[in-house]
Amino acid sequence: MSLKLAAGAAAVALSVFAAGGAGAWTIGFSQVGSEGDWRPAFSANMQETAKDYDVDLKFANAQGKQEEQLRAVRAFIAQGVDAIIIAPVVVTGWDQVLQEAKDAEIPVFLVDRDVDVQDKSLYVTRISADFNLEGRLAGAWLAAASKGDCKIVELQGTTGSAPAIERKKGFEAVIGEFPAMEIVATQSGDFTTEGGKKVMEAFIKSTNNLEGICASFAHNDNMQLGAIQAMKEAGLNPGKDVLMVSVDYVPAIKDKLANCEANASVELRSAVGQYIYPVVVDYLKEPHELDKWIVIPSDLHTANCTSS
Ligand code: AHR
User: Fold this and answer.
1) What residue ranges in the chain does DSSP mark as E strands?
2) What's the CA gap between 6 and 280, in Å, rounded?
3) Is the pLDDT of residue 308 over 50?
4) 289 and 279 in contact (C-beta within 8 Å)?
């Protein structure tokens, strides 16, 4: 073997070793928690598809607590992982820990939810759906279904989280175009079925059994499922007396769409390892500038019984 070839082979061997041993990349993933049906499906997909991309995934479930996420990210930094993926619970409070990752030269990728930081160089990119578009799709569907005349109750997601902020903004931007469309009551159900049920029970009381209410907009399906339960217990007919529109398109809401207890759901894809890992792994192989947001498409699904 010539000297040049030998040097080339050594360089290849070194780069394979630098890739994390046996070609694997060690990546820490700090996940929000396991609320609702969508998030566990997302977590499972990330864990199941990691091996397809030669990734050794260190998974940390923060149980909905930002302090837990900060702890997990610091532990990943101490372990010297190749990259860190974060699905942030809320948008604020990230500057310091992201700076620590940057100082340790560990690239950070945001998935699903966004952060609100001054210095965008603290993370490489965000790979996620467009929550604002999801809100606009829900609002546009409702505007058409109600012919632009609708009093709405809104079940908000976790306060301070990107999907709660952006879905609300997007929805309001569309219904704001229709003078007879209005949100008359709004409250957080924290993205859970129990939260949604409690919030809808409160709305039922405060509006005299949803009198004059034309629709329920929930920032996720699980809250809508809780709302449906509360309405049925109060003798109301969700999907018929009140239009039901939400986000995620989880299997349980598909059943409700099929039996006309729900009317529309905007799909938030949960099988997103195929979008996330190639971006992260390509970057690790050869760091390069990326757009700050790589968007995963969203689709609207409706039931065939909206006007019954
Ligand atoms: O961040 C996405 C949202 O978080 C999902 O719509 C919701 O189900 C989850 O809790």
Assistant:
1) 25-31, 55-61, 83-86, 108-111, 125-129, 149-156, 180-188, 215-218, 243-248, 264-267, 293-296, 299-302
2) 30
3) no
4) no
Cα 134 to Cα 177: distance, rounded to the nearest angstrom: 17
For residue 2, pLDDT over 80 is answered with: no
Whole-angstrom distance, CA of residue 27 vs CA of residue 63: 20
How many residues would you count in the chain?
Answer: 308
CATH class of 131-267: alpha beta
pLDDT the model gives residue 11: 37
Q: Residue of the nearest CA to atom 6 in ligand 1? A: 220
DSSP 8-state secondary structure symbol assigned to residue 190: T
- Between the CA of 280 and the centroid of ligand 1 the distance, in Å, is 22
| pLDDT, tens digit, 9 for 90 and up, residues 197-230 | 999 999 999 999 999 999 999 999 999 999 999 9
| pTM strictly above 0.85 | yes
Closest atom of ligand 1 relative to the 112 alpha carbon: 1
What is the separation, in whole angstroms, between the first and last Cα of the chain? 79
Residues in a beta bridge with 156 = 188
Domain limits, the chain = 3-123, 131-267
**Which one-letter DSSP state was computed for residue 171?**
H
Q: Among 198, 173, 159, 191, which Cα is nearest to 268's?
A: 191
> Which residue has its alpha carbon closest to ligand 1 atom 2?
163
Mean pLDDT of 115-136: 98
Which CATH fold would you assign to the domain 3-123?
Rossmann fold (3.40.50)
Counting residues of the chain whose pLDDT is more than 70, the rounded percentage is: 92
